[in-house]
Every structure is written in structure tokens, then in C-alpha cells.
Amino acid sequence: MPKKKMKTMAFEEPLIELRKKISELKEYTKTADVDLSSEITSLEDRFAKLEEEIYENMKPWDRVQVARHPERPTTLDYLPLVFKDFIELHGDRVYGDDEAIIGGIGSFEGQPVTIIGHQRGKDTKENVRRNFGMPHPEGYRKALRLMKQAEKFGRPVICLIDTKGAYPGRAAEERGQSEAIARNLVEMAGLEVPVLSIVIGEGGSGGALALGVGNQILMLENSTFSVISPEGAASILWKDAALAKTAAEAMKITAPDLLEMGIIEHMIPEVRGGAHHDTARQAQLISGAIRYSLKELEGLSPDQLISQRYEKFRAIGVFTE
Predict the structure, then answer these.
(1) Rounded Cα–Cα distance for residues 214 and 263 (Å)
(2) Which of 185, 219, 239, 321 could form a disulfide with 255 if both were Cys (CB 3.0 to 4.6 A apart)?
């Protein structure tokens, strides 16, 4: 089976062209009686420097594009690499099972945990099945059911956030979308077990926040977390969605910006070029971050966990002139 061609981002195009030129020279030297080793070495040095320059100086809009990459690893990609013995649980015990959110019980380095995450697809068929990762209210009610179960049995809750937002359709509103999100916010705030929320892709609006009231919020380096998309913000502010790139810079929605403002606790570095280039290695980095965060929360009593969570979110947005 032919290897699937990976989509490239616009900011990566100079690297693609240079890599192509290096490959062409290497092929040429195999058939021609010409020594081009010095030229190839020079181009490879140039490639390494250009690669470092590009990935070390990514703009907010570049990170938005990486967060939306169709091959970016999802919750299901990370589950078998980060956790062991995962058992998926279904349904909200009220309406049905929403496949835009998956959740269940597993173990992390021998410790029982509850894992809940958004799930989008990587092709049209899977996206339709998962509703493009946009949950209905029954998805959030399923998540809350699993959180309360985790609280009952003393298991930490680990949420993986990756959604453009909650589904805004009529059916979702009829079944109580806003109430389901609001209830999750209230109930998560009072959970008596450690809660980690990890943004692995896009963290959009209330759809993301419904899994985001954690003792610690972690973000992958090229993920985003925002109340609205750059296109939506540009449409509102300047009546022109084409100004999304400008909006992305102004909104401060990337992990480096949110870490600097104290909204998240930790930024998880990504493999060069984005998590989709090496899912296994990225899973190792996520595992390390989970291990570190759980260690930081170890020993806190239920009351202390609730108090820490409360103070964390109360502090967001406080400023002095």
C-alpha cells in the first residue's frame, strides 16, 4: 500500500523545497560520475539551520494551523501509548452515547485513573461518526457521570481537550447544551480528586471549558485554547474572517502566551514540526507531564484540591494598573 502523503503547512514550504533539492542531488550522484558531496553537505547544513529557525520562531497563526492539522494525534491515538488496560464506558444514562467524547477507566504507571477526551475523525466517514469532535449535551453528561464515578472511587481524572467547540445545532440546544456545559463547570469545580486538563489540539469555547476546570491545565506547545476561533473573532471585530491571522496574534491563544499569563500551569513541548510527525515520542512527553503534575498534586486533601482549583480560576483575569 502506498504511503499516505502528509499535508504540509504554508510555513513549512521552504523546508519542503530544500529537502526536495537535496533528494534530487543525491539521486543524481547515483547515476552520474560527479562528486556533489560538498554541495549536498552544504544544503543539509542550510536545511538544519532553516528548520531550527522556522520551528523556533513560529507565529500564532502557524501554531493554529498545526493544531488543526488533519493528521494531528487524537485522544484515541494517545490512549494506548500513555495509559494501560483502558476500558471504554458508554452513555449518559439519560439520552444516549455521544461518540464525540470518549471516556473510561485505565491505569497510568500502575495508578487507576479515569480518562475522558474529545474525539474527532481523520477522514470524512470518521468525522461524521464523531460529529467533527463537537459534542452534544449527552457527551458532557457522559463525561460528568464518569467524573463522579472517579470521585466515588478516588481516581484522578485526566481530560484530553481537542474540539472546535460544543455542537451548536438545534437538536443540541433542545436537549440542553448550555445547561450540560454549565453543570460540568459547577461539578468539576467541586470534585474531591485531582483533575488534569490537557489541551492536545484545539480548545474551543465552552465545548473545551466543559472538560477544562482542572487543578492544572496543560497544553501541547502547538495547541490553542480560546473562547472563540480567530476567524470568528475577526468576523466580529473587523467584519472580515480573512483577518484571522491578525486576530490570532491579538487574542493570545497559544500555549506560550497562556503560560506567560498564568492561565495554564505547564506547556508540553512538541516534537519538531508538530505532534503528527512522531506520535509515539509525543506520547512519551505527555506521559512525563502527567507524571509531574500528579506528583505536584499528591498529598493534597479533598478540601485542598477544591480550594486550589477555586483559587486558580479566581486569579485568572486579575490585573493591576
Answers:
(1) 11
(2) 219
What is the C-alpha separation between 126 and 123, in angstroms, rounded?
Answer: 5
Are the CB atoms for 81 and 134 separated by under 8 Å?
no
Task: Cell numbers for 307, please give them.
Answer: 480550594
Which one of 3.30.70.2860, 3.90.226.10, 3.60.15.10, 3.40.630.30 gives the CATH number of domain 70-315?
3.90.226.10
114 SS3 class: strand
- Per-residue model confidence as pLDDT tens digits over 285-320: 999 999 999 999 999 999 999 999 999 999 888 666
Cβ neighbours around 184 below 10 Å, total = 22
Per-domain boundaries in the chain: 11-57, 70-315
* Exposure letters 265-284 (e unless 16+ CB within 10 A, then b): bbbbebbebbbbebbeebbe
For 153-197, the DSSP string reads: HT--EEEEEEES-S--SHHHHHTTHHHHHHHHHHHHHT-SS-EEE
Q: What's the chain's length in residues?
A: 321
Identity at 286, one-letter amino acid code: I
pLDDT in tens, 210-237: 999 999 999 999 999 999 999 999 999 9
- Can you read off the three cell numbers belonging to residue 227? 473562547
Distance in Å from the first CA to the final CA of the chain: 61
pTM of the model: 0.86
Judged by DSSP in three states, 282 sits in: helix
Q: All 3 cell numbers of residue 57?
A: 520562531
